[in-house]
Amino acid sequence: RFCLPLVLAYLPTMATGEEIPPALQDSWGDFWLFRFFVNAAGYTSIVVPGFLLIQYFKRRNYLETGRGICFPVIKSCVFGSEVKSVHQEDGSLPPRVEPTESSTARQVFKLLFCAAGLQASYLTWGVLQERVMTRTYGATETDPGEKFKDSQFLVFMNRILAFTVAGLYCALTKQPRHGAPMYKYSFASLSNILSSWCQYEALKYISFPTQVLAKASKVIPVMMMGKLVSRKSYEYWEYLTAALISVGVSMFLLSSAPNRHVSTVTTFSGIVLLAGYIIFDSFTSNWQDALFTYKMSPVQMMFGVNVFSCLFTVGSLLEQGALLESLRFMARHSEFTAHAVLLSVCSACGQLFIFYTINQFGAAVFTIIMTLRQAFAILLSCLIYGHTVTVVGGLGVAVVFMALFLRVYARSRMKKRSKKLPPGETPVQKV
């Protein structure tokens, strides 16, 4: 019976390949794998009763037999209207509204507004994310200060503000009649929570520039999965850009390894957490793509997903007693409170800028803006937090972003060519 605690206490050392200080050996509960299972147990305590209730209402044929004041709520959560719309071509967003009588100056102003909003929101978000997860609060000459450790609380802060913003937007603007059963949002919500949690936790083990490059290389596992599972076909330029991305990321990581600097060493835990982020994030986008077969707007999707995200995270935090502990940390450190609130504001505003930019200018322009944002994020992180990048590492970063821009250019050319194809032909599927 003494073996399990000893193994759990030794797991952080095995995973990171680093020696744990004696003061931390007794706090093995801070190890990310333990916290992951504790969080998952909290979500399960909500998911399982919800699943049983849904099955109960479906077996009772509640849609035909139910009545009373609770009937509209149960109908919306369990059954919905079950009216699906024709699936959009891009699988996620309504068709872009082309401007009819808009001057060039006005379009340029809109583009600059979108670019500035996206850059300001997500660059600030990235800088604050690294500050909150890697630096201490309340440090003085005699006191080293303390770090904030609960990534789930940060996810909760982000989601509750996004839920509020999306709710207000839906209430103040005209939206399509909602048809999807509300419980279906919970799947995307769970994967979204876990991907965000992995993203925050990964910063404890790897540098922010490494995390940004790993996100940029997400196309590689997506292509591999599509080839192995779905037997998809890809163009030669997709294989070329995927190879360039892998070469660039490898150059950056290998050039950083000899320094053995705390902020640049890619540990085993960091790699696993990044892999978890990519897997969960890929599921989120695919499930949301399926949900868009119902008639809904992107803001309604944002609202539905964040409703369940708030429910799951606050339930798990209350079960662990971590909500009050995090609030006490906020009370002790007003600087952290400002950072956490601003982090949430940037996340919520960034989502709205995403919807507006794609609706006004399309996915290609949005991808270019966000690719530039990733490059600026790496530069800002290096300038503010002192990450060192070698010449070889810098070349690797340049190769990655050159490949990303090449993908955008090639995809836009393919879309233009596909419009000229005869009705019977279809272009090769792309990722």
What does this structure look like?
By secondary structure, this protein is mainly alpha-helical. The protein has a domain at 109-136 and 148-416. The chain is built from 17 helices and no strands. It has helices spanning 3-16, 22-25, 32-59, 62-65, 71-79, 104-134, 151-172, 185-202, 208-216, 219-229, 236-256, 268-291, 298-320, 322-332, 334-361, 363-385, 391-419. Helix 11 (236-256) runs antiparallel to helix 17 (391-419). It is globular. The N and C termini lie far apart (50 Å). The model is unreliable at 1-26, 85-94, 96-101, 258-266 and 424-431 (pLDDT under 50).
Q: How are the elements arranged and paired?
A:
Layout: H1 3-16, H2 22-25, H3 32-59, H4 62-65, H5 71-79, H6 104-134, H7 151-172, H8 185-202, H9 208-216, H10 219-229, H11 236-256, H12 268-291, H13 298-320, H14 322-332, H15 334-361, H16 363-385, H17 391-419
Helix pairs in contact: 3-13, 6-15, 6-16, 7-8, 7-13, 7-15, 8-12, 8-13, 9-11, 9-16, 11-17, 14-15, 15-16, 16-17
